[in-house]
Amino acid sequence: MTGMTAARLPPRQRSAPQAGHRGPAATPLAIRSAFRAPELDQRRKATKETPAMTPRYDAIAEWYDAHIQSIQPSEALIVPELLRMTGDVQGLHLCDLACGQGHISRHLGRAGAHVTGIDLSSKLLGIAQEEERRFPLGIRYQLDDAQTLSSLADQSHSGCVSNLALMDIPNFTAVVSAVKRVLKPEAFFVFSITHPCFQAPEAHWEVRDGDRVTRVIPEYFQEREWWSVNTESVRGRVGAHHRTLSTYINTLIRAGFTLEAISEPQATGELGTIKPEFATIPPFMVMRWINAGTH
Ligand SMILES: C[S@@+](CC[C@H](N)C(=O)[O-])C[C@H]1O[C@@H](n2cnc3c(N)ncnc32)[C@H](O)[C@@H]1O
Question: Which portions of the sequence form the region Disordered (predicted)?
Answer without folding.
Answer: 1-52
